[in-house]
Automatic annotation (TrEMBL):
One of its GO terms (molecular function) is N-acetyl-beta-D-glucosaminide beta-(1,3)-galactosyltransferase activity. Pathway: Protein modification; protein glycosylation. This is Hexosyltransferase. The chain crosses the membrane at residues 27-46. Belongs to the glycosyltransferase 31 family. The keyword Transmembrane applies. InterPro entries: Glyco_trans_31 (IPR002659). The keyword Transcription regulation does not apply.
């Protein structure tokens, strides 16, 4: 760059004046940079939105998560469990008083009253089957993030008073929190049903043949038992656009351990407490049925295949006989409203 003589003299003077301060300015720059980095580290440590990632685990200590349930979790893979959730609607004595052979737990969204009513009018009304008592409960989270002290919605409260089959906990009810929902279910079963032999978790848009289920369980083991549609060697989906994407940083293996598909599975009632203990050592991922499989592997317990194929069905055949629904235990449907048509076909079936 060409400078005129006066500008050359000004430039030379400026440079000579600046050089004594050069070292001091550089020192000040590094001090400021260090302060900024320190503030960033302190923010990331104390900010509630980051706390779920700061989970300490070892062989002797329970994982402690300090975040409140009212905050979102930044990771798309992990869920906030273990955590001390509590029930805002409960049936604290019913299972102990009834001592059913089997408890059927139906996770359902708080706003899905129609789905609950359909089940109550169809397979959920089968309380005494093959001489065994069966109890049904609907498991709900909260429909929105809010104060934990807020009372339940009036509609759900009235529904609970009428049917005595609602269990509602204070986690946010969402697809990403299905693992939380299942673990809260296990907590409830472990503490409320000491005289019950089996529990089933089943989706609300599913047909359940309770008679076939009870018949199978009357011949099943009472301990270390979990069955359903067992996936073996299922590939871990690495496509980020997939609903079930899991990063290699979270789960580096190429395939999952065996797990029972979440549409509907059964377990003996000695397992909930042990799975809850395993959850203290196994990081909780958002894919609920996979997480159950991970806990089972940690416990060293093998899943059991059903006594024959075709009892737990995800893809209902388009062409089927009138006796189809008499031959299955679980069939996933398109929606809960379809249960009404399927139930009518099941009740009016010929002698199968």
């Amino acid at each position: 760059m060409h400078l005129s003589p006066p500008l050359k003299m000004f430039h030379s003077s400026l440079c000579s004046e600046k050089s004594p301060w050069k070292g001091a300015r550089r020192w000040l720059f590094y001090v400021m940079l260090s302060l900024m980095l320190g503030v960033l580290v302190l923010y990331s440590w104390f900010s509630p939105s980051w706390r779920p990632l700061l989970i300490q685990r070892d062989d002797n200590k329970t994982a402690v998560n300090t975040i409140s349930p009212s905050h979102y979790i930044p990771s798309q893979f992990y869920v906030e469990y273990p955590y001390q959730y509590h029930f805002i609607l409960d049936e604290p004595n019913r299972c102990r008083q009834e001592s059913p052979f089997m408890v059927v737990m139906i996770p359902v969204a708080p706003q899905s009253k129609e789905a609950r009513d359909i089940i109550r009018r169809t397979w959920g009304r089968e309380n005494r089957v093959l001489g065994q008592l069966v109890s049904y409960f609907f498991l709900l989270g909260k429909s929105r993030i809010g104060n934990d002290a807020e009372p339940p919605d009036e509609q759900i409260l009235n529904e609970s008073k009428k049917h005595h089959d609602i269990l509602q906990s204070n986690f946010l009810d969402s697809y990403k929190n299905l693992t939380i929902k299942t673990m809260v279910m296990l907590e409830w079963l472990s503490s409320h049903c000491p005289n019950t032999s089996y529990a089933m978790k089943i989706d609300s848009d599913t047909f359940l043949n309770v008679r076939n289920l009870v018949d199978m369980l009357l011949k099943a083991p009472r301990h270390d038992y979990m069955t359903g549609l067992v996936a073996r060697g299922a590939a871990v989906l690495r496509d980020p656009t997939s609903k079930w994407f899991l990063s290699p940083n979270v789960f580096p293996e190429d395939s999952y351990p065996p797990y029972a598909l979440g549409v509907g599975y059964v377990l003996s009632l000695d397992l909930p407490k042990r799975i809850l203990e395993a959850s203290k050592k196994v990081q909780a991922v958002y894919i609920e049925d996979v997480y159950m499989g991970l806990c089972m592997r940690h416990l060293g317990i093998q899943l059991t295949d059903p006594p024959r194929g075709g009892l737990f069905v995800v893809n209902m055949p388009s062409e089927r006989t009138d006796c189809y629904f008499a031959s299955v235990i679980v069939t996933l449907l398109h929606n809960s409203e379809q249960i009404l048509d399927v139930w009518n076909a099941y009740e009016t079936r010929p002698d199968c």
